[in-house]
Amino acid sequence: MGNSGQIGRNESCPCGSGKKYKRCCIGKNPPLLQRSRHYFALKGKSAESFIHELAQKTFLTDWCYPNPLLPNGKELCDLLVVYDEIAIIWQIKSLRADDGGFFKANELEKNLRQLAGAHRQLFKLRTPVQLENPRRGKEGFDPSGVKRVHLISVILGDCQQPMRFAENTKDLLVHIFAGDYPQIVMNELDTVGDFCEFLKAIESIPADARLVVAGGQEELLAHYLSKGKRLDWINRHKVTVVDEGAWVALQFNANYLA
Description:
Layout: H1 30-34, H2 47-57, E1 64-66, E2 79-83, E3 86-94, H3 105-123, E4 130-133, E5 137-140, E6 148-156, E7 166-169, E8 172-178, H4 181-188, H5 192-203, E9 211-213, H6 218-226, E10 240-242, H7 246-251, H8 254-257
């Protein structure tokens, strides 16, 4: 956005759709755009700056512990979030420019292995881990108070190859946030409670459900929001199709905006 406050045609649309402004909200009602100009933005960010944003500028600020260390000095994971009885383990990967925007399967696999390893250290081996929050200082991690654990793999960059929104590794379900989706989901679910409830809803989808999501991950998020923050409408006995276009439609739904 230029100094005049005007949005460039090729800039990311401030509505949070992840599309360029010229292909999304250009020419539409400006007040609808104003609501999201202060939102969490990821365009061009590295893994390190993504972690910094989460730890210091989002609703997760008070519960973020960047780069927690094992007793041997090795990094446990990129980020650990501990909120009430919930822990969220994050591993972030930035696609290199010379990858041409295509993600490689081994990059995701590495994230999955690191997440599974971090979960094992924390909750099976109960390895002592030193945490440090920019606001709250240093403290030790106590696994006994944690009742629910979520694992998130973030793939930053222009991911042009489709991928699943969740993967299983070592009997653990890992949420996959790819491309513009981390920005979209964290802008919409901008309290730690709402964010964790959405992760829980995704994990409640039956393993044998035949779910087809057309378009990006934001389409499933749109249906979740428009149907009362629920995913129990996904039928395990027949194919459930989540159509493309639900996300864009939601942005201009009068009830949603109200």
